[in-house]
Design goal:
Blueprint lengths: L3 E2 L1 H10 L8 E2 L1 H6 L1 H7 L35 H8 L2 H19 L9 E5 L5 E3 L15 E3 L5 E3 L8 H10 L5 E5 L2 H9 L9 H6 L4 E3 L7 H11 L4 E4 L3 E6 L2 H24 L40 H20 L2
Parallel strand pairs: 1-2, 8-9
Antiparallel strand pairs: 3-4, 3-7, 4-5, 5-6, 7-10, 9-10
Length: about 325
C-alpha cells in the first residue's frame, strides 16, 4: 500500500533533508509543499563573485494626454491644414474613432447620438461631425474647430453640441477632452430629475467626485452651453436633465472611462434602491454618511415617545380614540350581509 504523505510529513522530510518517497501519494496541501515547488520558490543564493544586475527602467503609467507648445497654434489656412493632417493629429483621430466605437458598442449612444472633443492647441479642438454614427466614424470624418466653434478644417460639418464642450473647456483649463453620451442608467437619472447621491462607493468618489447636475436647456443652443459650462467648472461628470451625460478628463480615454464609471455607478444605485425597498427618492445629498434610508436591510426605527429620538409625548385623548374607532369599524363590517 502506498504511503499517504501530508503537508506535515513534507515539512518533517524537509527538516530532515530526506526525499519524498517516489511511490507516495501526496495530499493536495502536501503537493503544494513538495520540495520541487519549494526550491523553485526560494530565491537563489547570491553569488558574491557575480555583479548585481543593472536596474531596469522605471515602471510607467500610460499617458494619453495630448500636449502642445503654448503659442504654437498654426495661423494660415495652409498651416492649419498641415497641422490637421500631421501624424500626431492623425493618431488622435484614430483614438477618437475608437472611443466612438466603444460608446456605440456599450449602447451609450444610438443613431447619430453623442459626440467627442479633444483640445489640441491654445485655440484648437478636434471634434466629431454631426449626423454620424459614433460606431462607424473614420479619421477623415473628424473636424477641427476653434474655441468659438468656427470650423477650420475637415470636410464634414461639426456637431452643434460641440459648443457645450467648448463652454466647459473655456472655463476649465484641465478639461482637455469631453465625451457626451446617453448611457442608459445615468440618463435614467437625468430623465427622473435625480442627481446621483455621493458617499456610497469609494471608486466613484475617487474617479468622479461629486456628480454635477445641469437643468434642462434645448440641446445645441447657447443656453445649454452656458448652463453646462458653469457646472463643468467644478464637476468632471455632469448629468444633463432630460438629455444625458457629459464628462471631461485630461485625455479622451480618461473621459471615456468616466462615462463608464458614471453609468455603472448609477446602475448600482438603482439596483441597491430596489433592495432597499425603492427609497431612492428619499435620499438627501450630504446626509448619506449617517443616513440609513439607503442602506439595504437597515430599517429606520420610528421615534419613540419621550425617548432618545425626541418623539413627542402621546396625547391621551388621541390614544383613547384609536380603539373606539377600531371598534366602530368592526361593528360596521359585521353588520354587512
Amino acid at each position: 500500500m502506498r504511503k499517504i504523505i501530508t503537508a506535515r510529513d513534507i515539512e518533517e522530510l524537509l527538516r530532515a533533508g530526506e526525499p519524498v518517497p517516489p511511490d507516495a501519494t501526496l495530499t493536495p496541501s502536501a503537493r503544494d509543499l513538495r520540495p520541487a515547488r519549494i526550491s523553485a520558490a526560494r530565491p537563489a543564493a547570491a553569488d558574491p563573485a557575480r555583479p548585481a544586475p543593472a536596474p531596469g527602467p522605471e515602471p510607467t503609467v500610460p499617458d494619453h494626454e495630448f500636449k502642445w507648445r503654448p503659442g504654437s497654434d498654426p495661423r494660415t489656412p495652409a498651416q492649419v491644414e498641415a497641422y490637421f493632417r500631421s501624424p500626431p493629429i492623425e493618431d488622435l483621430k484614430r483614438r477618437i474613432c475608437d472611443i466612438g466605437r466603444r460608446i456605440w458598442e456599450k449602447d451609450y449612444v444610438d443613431g447619430n447620438g453623442g459626440n467627442v472633443t479633444v483640445r489640441v492647441g491654445d485655440n484648437l479642438v478636434l471634434c466629431t461631425p454631426t449626423l454620424i454614427s459614433k460606431g462607424f466614424m473614420r479619421p477623415e470624418d473628424l473636424c477641427l474647430i476653434d474655441l468659438d466653434g468656427r470650423q477650420l478644417a475637415g470636410t464634414r460639418k461639426r456637431t452643434s453640441e460641440a459648443m457645450t464642450h467648448l463652454a466647459i473647456m473655456r472655463r476649465q483649463p484641465a478639461a482637455k477632452a469631453c465625451v457626451h453620451a446617453h448611457p442608459p442608467h445615468a440618463t435614467a437619472f437625468a430623465v427622473a430629475g435625480i442627481k446621483p447621491p455621493s458617499c456610497l462607493i469609494p471608486e466613484a468618489e475617487v474617479f468622479l467626485g461629486a456628480i454635477g447636475y445641469a437643468k434642462y436647456e434645448t440641446p445645441g443652443t447657447p443656453a445649454v452651453a452656458d448652463t453646462v459650462g458653469e457646472v463643468g467648472r467644478d464637476h468632471q461628470c455632469i448629468i444633463m436633465e432630460n438629455h444625458g451625460v457629459i464628462v471631461w478628463g485630461k485625455d479622451v480615454e480618461d473621459a471615456y472611462w468616466k462615462t463608464e464609471n458614471v453609468d455603472a455607478y448609477c446602475k448600482t444605485i438603482w439596483v441597491a434602491s430596489q433592495l432597499a425597498g425603492g427609497t431612492l427618492h428619499q435620499i438627501k445629498e450630504c446626509e448619506l454618511c449617517d443616513n440609513s434610508d439607503f442602506r439595504p436591510g437597515v430599517v429606520c426605527p420610528a421615534p419613540q415617545a419621550g425617548g432618545p429620538n425626541g418623539g413627542p409625548e402621546p396625547d391621551p385623548s388621541i390614544e383613547a380614540l384609536v380603539p373606539a374607532l377600531a371598534e366602530q369599524i368592526l361593528k360596521q363590517l359585521s353588520a354587512r350581509p
